[in-house]
Amino acid sequence: MPRIRLFLTVLIILLVAGVLSNFASTFPDGLERVAEDLGFMGAAKNHTAIFQDYSIPGITYSNLAGGLAGILGCVMVYILIYGFAKIIKCKTSL
Questions:
Q1: What is the DSSP letter of 25?
Q2: 65 to each of 20, 24, 48, 72, 86, how far by Cα in Å?
Q3: Which residue from 13, 2, 11 is spatially nearest to 78, judged by alpha carbons?
Q4: Chain-wide mean pLDDT for the chain?
Q5: How far apart are CA 48 and CA 44, in angstroms?
């Protein structure tokens, strides 16, 4: 039963990140809106981002680029959380 639950959880995450994220609003998010209102939006242009504008560079089909960015972002967050959990578990078992 836990494997089915894990499979369904991963499937839902991939569906939301890979498919439904393409239907997200095109209006700026809260941070971008504040940056525009306070005039520091240009300050972020000199920095690099892995998935700039929630897309993967080099992929011309925007829905595919956005969906893959969502899926890869979820995978990266999972790896970070899993790594932190392992570190915390090792330190508490000592």
A1: -
A2: 13, 14, 17, 10, 31
A3: 13
A4: 85
A5: 8
Q: What single letter denotes the amino acid at residue 7? A: F
Q: Specify the residue for token string 């508490």.
A: 92
pLDDT tens sequence across 57-91: 888 888 898 899 989 989 999 999 999 999 999 88
- Cα angle for residues 79, 84, 88 (degrees, 5° grid): 150
Q: What's the Rg (C-alpha) of the chain?
A: 17
Among candidates 32, 36, 70, which has minimal Cα distance to 51? 70
Distances in Å between the Cα of 53 and the Cα atoms of 1, 20, 67, 69, 85 are: 38, 16, 12, 10, 29
Integer Cα distance of 4 and 9 in angstroms: 8
Please state, in angstroms and rounded to a whole number, the distance separating the CA atoms of residues 24 and 39. 25
